[in-house]
């Protein structure tokens, strides 16, 4: 009985650390969003619904980041990292659609083309997705190496 209660705080410690780390990361990211939202406020005057698009993106991104952090050390971490990146790509495509925005000023009609921004953002996201896939392969490779310890017959054959 004493051993079980003594082992209990040790088993809770990694979970507590993961939870604190995930909470800290979420708070920092939200604080950065709050600061940047002050600079993005003028843009929302010209692009209808821009503030809502950014807020929704930040909320879902923070949730996926927290879940990935809570599942760190397992294969699920890499799946949530990939989900976060795929969400970013999909949200960019859905939110910005054609990549053209019309801005009307008194006596002036402007069309803003953000295709270059979208291409750069998607290429960076694809690099992140490739990194996540490679990390998943590395994780599985490490797990396979641990499973095949040097004293097993399978490891001696190769």
Sequence of secondary-structure elements: HHHEEHH
Helix content: over 70%
The main sheet orders its strands as 1-2
Give the mean pLDDT: 83
Rg on CA atoms, Å: 23 Å
> How far apart are the first and last residues' alpha carbons, in Å?
45 Å
Q: Based on CA inertia axes, which overall geometry fits?
A: elongated
Low-confidence stretches: 1-7
Largest sheet: 2 strands, antiparallel
Q: Proportion of β residues?
A: 5-15%
Helix-strand makeup class: mainly alpha
What's the number of extended β-strand segments? 2
- Our count of domains comes out at 2
What is the tally of helical segments? Answer: 5
Q: How would you describe the overall organization of this protein?
A:
This protein is mainly α and 158 residues long. The chain folds into two domains: 1-70; 75-158. It is built from five helices and two strands. The protein has helices at residues 2-46, 50-70, 75-96, 115-147, 153-157; strands spanning 100-105, 108-113. Helix 1 (2-46) packs antiparallel against helix 2 and helix 2 (50-70) packs antiparallel against helix 3. It starts with a helix and ends with a helix.
